[in-house]
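Quick one: sequence plus zinc ion SMILES, need structure tokens.
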Amino acid sequence: MKNLPNFTHSLTQLIASASISSTQASWDQGNLAVIQLLATWFEQLGFSIEIQAVPATRKKYNLLAKLGSGEGGLLLAGHSDTVPFDENRWQSDPFKVVDKDNKFYGLGTCDMKGFFAFILQACKGLSAKQLKKPLYILATADEETTMAGARFFTQNQQIKPDVAIIGEPTNLVPVIMHKGHMSHRITIQGQSGHSSKPSLGVNAIEIMYQVISQLMQLKEKLAHNYSNQAFDVKEPTLNLGAIHGGDNANRICGHCELDIDMRALPGMTDSELIQLLSEALKPLAEKYPHRVSFNELDPSSPSFEQNQSSGLVTIAEEISGHSCCAVNYATEAPFIQQLGCQTIVLGPGSIDQAHQPNEFLAHSEIDKTEVILTKMIQRYCL
Ligand SMILES: [Zn+2]
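Reply:
Sure thing.
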């Protein structure tokens, strides 16, 4: 155990091990270096280590570390990847931790490789013999893009902890709810032709115009029929994000695509929302046979809700000193919850710093986070 780095040292090494996820191949990196660091450190602490290759990714891995044995226990989970960065807007090297103004700057300090540096410190001095129930550490791959790591882990994993804490930056406030997220592309296949003879073609933009009208009605329907007071934006949202179609003013537009994003409230299933979309497009699909279709752009991620009256929420509120809340961003929580454990999102740092240039983790988070993690381990494993 003598070789284990202190907090700053482990944070420095985690940040130096670049692990960017991106749907653009030019940005996308593997995460093996981060996984190997964690494996080495947790092994030194007596954990057993399992590294899983995540299928359908560009050489990405999940790590599961386990201390102790038996049923139940505590899972501390997080993602090992970061988003890409905008070099021109960073004032320092994103891969070098800069300790300045009582903050640690670096890509992934707050979202969320820093969380693993905290866990490491909280586990120092723990031994398997002390534990009545197991302590699990999970580091996942590709959270920032497809959530492939968490999906794969949930589908395949045999563990069933009593509770799970995902250390995304929440300012150490327990988060028990967020919306889901899905994106679709609506495609109109028209028939191109010379603009002087409209009857010889089928104008895809004109059909898309009608599609958009239907979508605006769906948007109103969602706002009218569904609401959850826990959220700033109380209704499920539908956003028209990007549109492409046609090539020339004097040609009948033969093809048009619209990309939309929908965010389900907790309690709404993905299929419910897709059904509503399908119903909205149905009249046009009937009016223009074989010309209107839609398909999923990225794998959807479900909404998340942990019952407010569950024991974990009560304990997290007590230990953190904060009441639980809902947030607007999506996490791996709905997948982790499928393991059958009570699940919350609770971690150091602010989401305002995540995905931003000059991302940082404030020194003021250190003691508070160590206390919370230590108390959670005591409560659920000792
Ligand atoms: Zn994150």
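The CA atoms of residues 3 and 44 lie 8 Å apart. The pocket of zinc ion is lined by residues 79, 111-112, 143, 168 (CB under 6 Å).
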